[in-house]
Design brief:
Layout (H helix, E strand, L loop, with lengths): L2 H17 L9 E2 L5 E2 L5 E2 L3 E2 H4 L3 E4 L7 H10 L1 H8 L6 E5 L3 H6 L7 E2 L6 H7 L4 E2 L5 E3 L3 E4 L5 H13 L1 H11 L22 H12 L7 H8 L3 H12 L3 H19 L4 H7 L5 H12 L3 H8 L2
Parallel strand pairs: 1-4, 5-6, 6-10, 7-8
Antiparallel strand pairs: 2-3, 9-10
Helix pairs in contact: 1-7, 7-8, 9-12, 10-11
């Protein structure tokens, strides 16, 4: 899938323009000099072979595959590329995202390294590559010489890390603002399971919307059960079965997730956010937020705001 490569190239071009000099030099490489057939009928013409390019870093894109059987076929069909990756100098930085991580893992360059990949590959990759320290709860993992990210937009956190490393976080923030880049998913995994889009159960979706609508001070279990027209016992049993959490814990995560979104997306003061979400005591809100995320609201905003 070439889209991620084009977007990555655009980001580095923007970084060069912001720096006022060519800090990043791009080279399109392939296993050899033959054109590479890509998705959507695209063909890319390499400027150099991988072995001859002498790149300081190589980005391996994702590829179309939606089953473990297809991954096995891809690995078999790309044995030459995998061998070429394994033969690159050990000092070459190797980055990949989405299903492309399979190629990098097969090359052996992730052995003993922390890495991540697209969630549905977790079981297969753990079986195929037990020597890799898989961290599928993370959307992006960076090491000194390798970086991996999940999903088709995984090129973005890799590009961000590179630009921040070379030019600083403020430069990336300027680029992100100018190009209206999507904000990265917070590295803390605590809120990943509570997004409304992740909720497929009708009762959990109704609970989520109800918690977002009500003030934090009025989120007692009985009140919620009454609003949802179920017994408190039924609500507790259903939430525990579907999330592994008590109702109070799930509700707290949903409400704090609202707060985290406002910290990242708005310039509202912490006191205003606390009041708007119905927390009666700002100091209590601050303590709870830090207990759950490990960061104060101010530190969370500083770390994740784009």
């Amino acid at each position: 899938m070439p889209a991620g490569l084009f977007a990555f190239a655009d980001l580095l071009t923007a970084a060069n323009r912001r720096a006022g000099e060519q800090r990043f030099e791009l080279c399109w490489v392939g296993l050899d000099s033959e054109p590479v057939d890509c998705a959507q009928g695209m063909r890319l013409q390499p400027q150099s072979s991988l072995a001859q390019a002498a790149c300081s870093a190589v980005l391996i894109p994702g590829l179309w595959a939606d089953s473990e059987a297809m991954i096995a076929q891809v690995l078999e069909a790309n044995r030459g590329l995998i061998r070429a990756l394994s033969q690159l100098p050990r000092s070459t930085r190797l980055w990949s995202y989405c299903t492309g991580v399979c190629l990098l893992a097969q090359s052996g360059r992730l052995q003993g390294e922390r890495a991540t990949a697209t969630w549905w590959l977790a079981s297969s990759l753990q079986q195929r590559f037990p020597q890799v320290d898989w961290q599928f709860e993370q959307t992006q993992v960076s090491n000194r010489l390798t970086a991996t990210a999940s999903g088709v937009s995984g090129y973005l956190p890799i590009a961000r890390a590179l630009i921040e490393e070379q030019l600083g976080a403020l430069v990336y923030r300027e680029i992100a603002t100018l190009m209206v880049l999507p904000r990265p998913e917070p590295a803390t995994p605590v809120f990943r399971s509570v997004g409304l889009m992740q909720q497929t159960d009708p009762l959990l979706r109704r609970l989520h919307l109800l918690v977002e609508r009500l003030p934090a001070q009025k989120l007692g279990v009985q009140r919620l059960a009454d609003e949802l027209a179920v017994s408190a016992r039924t609500l507790a049993r259903k939430v525990r079965a579907l999330t592994g959490l008590a109702v109070a814990d799930q509700v707290r995560l949903i409400k704090l997730n609202q707060a985290s979104e406002r910290l990242i997306l708005t310039a509202d003061s912490i006191s205003r956010i606390s009041a708007a979400l119905g927390y009666g005591d700002e100091s209590s809100f601050r303590r709870t937020f830090k207990h759950v995320t490990g960061l104060t609201p101010a530190a969370y905003r500083q770390q994740y705001k784009v």
